[in-house]
Amino acid sequence: MASTDALVLGGGFAGLAAASALAQRGARVTLLERRPHLGGRAYSFHDPRLGALADNGQHLFMGCYRQTRAFLGRVGAEGLLRLPPGVRVGYLDANGRRDLLHCPGFLPAPLHLAVGVALLRGVGWGEKASLARLAAFFRKLPPGPVSPEFDRVTARAWLDSLGLGRGVQRLLIDPIALGALNEHPERASALGLVAVLRELFFRDEESSRLGLPAAGLSELCARPALRYLTERGSVVACSTTVTALEREGPLWRARTERGEVFEARAVISALPPWALARVERPAALRGSWEGLEPSPILGIHLRLDRPVVESPVTGLLGMELHWIFDKTALWDLPGPGQYLSLVISAARVHLVKTPADLLALARAELSGCLPAFGKAKIEAWSVVKEPRATPALLPGTDAARPAHRSPEPGFFFAGDWTRTGLPATIESAVQSGHACAKLASEG
To answer: Angle between the 13-24 and 223-231 helix axes, to the nearest 10 degrees?
Structure first.
């Protein structure tokens, strides 16, 4: 039987944040991960179909991800996340019409947003003026956690209730909702969107900056965190599946499918809800969170013989594809070709499609919005499906998200799906890990 101060179950962002925060406090930590690698639902791998590194799902980072930036700083990786001042995101629609959201970095929030919206060409002045209603709403919103009343309606219903024009919703708000909530505004709870928009545009200018990772997700998070933990004497065991949890007095025991037993005074579960639901555990650790459904993300990766987009990040409007990420620019890869990652959020209807069908979809949509794409040759391609990328936080689900401190002494819930007041983002995951580490340290 292996004994330690704290057991962390799950090696994604939440688990690694919790484990590294505990190790920083001098605790002996053992982290158990079911997969053969760390990263959880956000990792990178060498894809033989591409002959290149690929992320399992592209994630957006923002300046308001303060807990994530603190975690990356702790493990020595913050330099891999660039945060250029201001906001500069290009948009394309199905007919190739272009627009640009450019919020100057030298202006304070929310004035920088007002300037950025004023410069948009795709919406009229009447619709732009309707954004003042959004600003008025946030001026009146009390500080602290967002009220549960916003979990009773969809994001679209809330935006419509403010009188926000559909044009400005489509161009400005919908891409944020899809990226941050991994759900369509017609389905997602408004609570998460309220929290995200407040942080993005109504806190300070730095919060709205787009974080551009200069490396794959594993290099950004998993490898630096592993190095940090092992240098401090922590144990990290991959390919280790916990099957049962039990408490005897002040001690917790975790049993694995290989018959190993790990013992600790504190357990932080950073498993996703569907994984924790499969673990045998005390009745007090059950809850309505077991009914949370997943929402998928789908990535289509293309290696082209020539550049076809100029912006590192491009939003696609009114299409099945939602985002284009230029990995050649983000990762400083050599030319002359271009490596693109195309993202479809909340991709339920696309999961059943074959890779060939999805490639055909990408060809059709990129040919319509990018004239240069028709002249490019696809040298290699790959499709990566992540069926359980995030929980789907629909109206009424926030009450099902568990608090970090469980009814069982010494057991704590972490993960993007726990009650952080944020949607299921990397920042939510890291925030939960830090909160659980603090609680576990206090006893």
So the answer is: 30
